[in-house]
Fold each of these.
Amino acid sequence: MRSVLSILFFAVLLLVGPGNVLRADSPLEKQMNQMRRSFKELKKAMEAPVEADKPKYLGWVADLKKASEEAKTMEPEKTEKVPAGEREAFLEGYRSKMAELIELTEELGKVIEAGKWTEAKGLIGQINQVQREGHQKYRAEEN
Ligand code: HEM
């Protein structure tokens, strides 16, 4: 029994990975994880939206917006790896991509408020796209 437990213990350690055991989430990662939580709920909800649940949806929109605004004030880890002369442009690009996300999120709130579900679904797709672009350009390789 004890050896089974030891094997399990080491298997878990391997899964977690030596790089992750001692590494705390950066403040930006924390905001991003918050964004993931509310966006995941919204994505799921917009597959079969219900008029009566609007207040709940708007709550998630507010959470996503708040976390995105916080994230916009922070710097990606990758910034350090960008040559000094290109850093300001890199950060400007990051902030403007985050601003796009915030704008789309505000728009999402408006169309949900108005019960325009087809438009809401379209905006979920656009947010997905901005997320993909943001991660391709601004997230460090090992993430
Ligand atoms: C709804 C949209 C988004 C969601 C749900 C989201 C979610 C996440 C999650 C869950 C992580 C952590 C993943 C990991 O463990 O590495 C992450 C990391 C990251 N995301 Fe996003 N993201 C979104 C949009 C964006 C956008 C638009 C940008 C850039 C403008 C961006 C830039 C980053 C960066 C730079 C990291 C790495 C953290 C760091 O460098 O400290 N994300 N994102």
Amino acid sequence: MTELLFLLLPLAFYSGWHSARKRYRPKKNTHKKNLDTHFVKGINYLLDERPDKALNFFLNYSDIDKYTAETFLLLGNSFRNRGEVDRALKVHQNLMARPNLNRTQKEAAMMALGKDFLAAGILDRAEKVFKELLSTKPKNSADAYLSLRQIYEQLKDWPQAIEVTKHIENKGKTQQLRIIAHYYCEMAHTDVAQGQVYSAEKYLIQAKKSYKALPRIKIIQGDIAAYQENYSKALKLYQNVIQDDAYLIAMLFKQLLFVAEKIGSSEKIYQFLVQHYQQSQDLNILEHLLELAYQSNHYDQELETILESDLQNKALSLYSIFKSSQLLESTLKQLSNKRALQLIRQALHNHLQGQLNFQCQHCGYKMNEYLWRCPICHHWDTITKLQ
Ligand SMILES: [Zn+2]
């Protein structure tokens, strides 16, 4: 409960203000003094880790003024932050019902209430609160729009998410345009999966208008080409994406294998990866090059040179070492060497078991596959591969 200590700050300010007032205007309002002592009692419940008593106390507290309203808000927010959404809702609903709040307090209380509903997963109620709040043109409307957007993202209601995002340009215009492009891509992606290519293409045009450089647009164009069985076009588009952003090979590798299977050869993809790795020296590429070589049983002089040099000289990821040993093992004939490699491979394999390969740069959450949007902090394009 130590995090509730910060609630004492407005209280300290409040009592300081009161004692100063008393000093300059002596002998007035002893009733108020009793209320102050009473208020301190409520804070004591919090410090004693008796949140229900504290809650009841605040809900029945009659004398709401500027400072106690602030304390109520903080109390509710801190309940929400601790995952106690029921208590947060009680506090903020009680505060909203008070008749003597000024406009700023009312706006803050509504915002807090909307966030409680959002945290509780009661999305329709949350949406209603934020819309009502926005209809009053509040000072901090961007915060309400951001919360509304979170609701539409959860509901996968992309058109509404786009509309709402148009209102938050002051939160970094380029970033908002990029997110809007993602929303169009979400719709395009769903359409491709359902074979509705024409409609998907229309969404991609909108995505391009919003943020042309989003690599995801090209990926979906590649998916469309693959759907239309134009595999060489699909491959070209995927390769373009990887040339620009090597880390995206983690997401595209399955599609590359799919195209390889369809055209009946992995040679083109293998050559592309070898060349691209030699130019870029990007370890993301190496990892998948080794995987492809192993899967397609492809081992040549070029790859041997790469392995000789990189295993000795580079700090490779565990995964790359594992893939290298797998590949070497499959090419060796002599049993003793082979046994040694088997052991190394096994040890590395053990180490890699259960390892999470991707991490959100914003909140630090780790996951085992690449996602466009972090499932925890809901930021877009913040996932990177761990080396
Ligand atoms: Zn995150």
